[in-house]
Design goal:
0% strand, mainly alpha, 63% helix, Hypothetical protein af1432, binds magnesium ion
Length: 377
Amino acid sequence: MTPNQAASMTFYEREAILLAPFAMRSADSAGREHPEPLHPYRSPYQRDRDRIVHSSAYRRLAHKTQVFTGEKGDYHRTRLTHTLEVASIARTIGRVLRLNEDLIEALALMHDIGHPPFGHAGEDVLNECTAECGGFNHNQQAVRIVTLLEDRYPEFSGLNLTREVLSGQGSRFKSDSTDTIEQSLLEVQVVDAADSIAYDAHDADDALELGLLDLDQLLAIPLWHDAASRVQREYTALNAKQLRRGVIRQLLDTLVTDLVDSTTSRLAAAPIESPAAVIAYGERLVVPSSTVFEQKTQLERFLFDHVYRHPTVLAERSLAGEALRGMFERYSRHPEELPQPSRERLRQTGIPRVVCDYLAGMTDRFALEEAGFKDGE
Ligand code: MG
């Protein structure tokens, strides 16, 4: 095929040539709730990705906490930079497995779009506040945002995304109580695995930068120890910072390579030859080897005890939680103080859910100002 012939291929033809039999093809999409004509050169999943990138909920991820708030400086990840790391890792995995990268990118860029301000602290408080009307979960909120709350088109609410993207995000929500992610497309499973790889590496990196951990503590964890040994074999006389960055790089490489190798073996052994076979298989196919799975679990336990439960992080969480709870109570008593678009939804949706949607959409900065902690004081 000449470059000119390649350039004139439709996205259907490109996918037919490039993708593996178990990948999800645009041509087999179950479509959108509100049917739309095909775009001349963007595939349905590319359009989904673009709709997500242009949504206001996506832009707000820049000012939402991943683990550490903006008070802690500019080095560490925000919800947006985490999202971009997940998309980057997931696309790498997707390309080598010959999956649908456009679908993967759309899923990765939307996966955390439902997070409220203040990370999991915010999520816990909103879940408590809405206990009597169904609770709050960031994965479910993401579906609410893209089907209902984003207001961009005159013909319908939300972004009218393809059913594959919606059900992919939906399986993340349902997977909190059941094993539906095990019955999801490989593209969905890849994003889930990439999310886990990204936060294992970057939460440790951020915690070291912030001085919540020291390198020696992490070097006692086998996954870190092995990565550090490899880096030190290649480069001698590194200072602590260079070593840390080398380890993060090595860690990502080790985790991604192991995941790709292990997944490739599982797909071949099953054998899996269509997206329908992936779903019917009923077990997760995109998984690390058992050795790496154990080592990852060990690292995650360590991060849970030493980072997510660190007194500094817990103190921030409780302050942020109080601010959010105070606002929930205030707006519930005075819904007339909500902005106009929220007030319009009160009659149909009810006060608690409308207040919750409004608060969940806030960035950390806006929420702190609203709560009376001007400039984060
Ligand atoms: Mg995530």
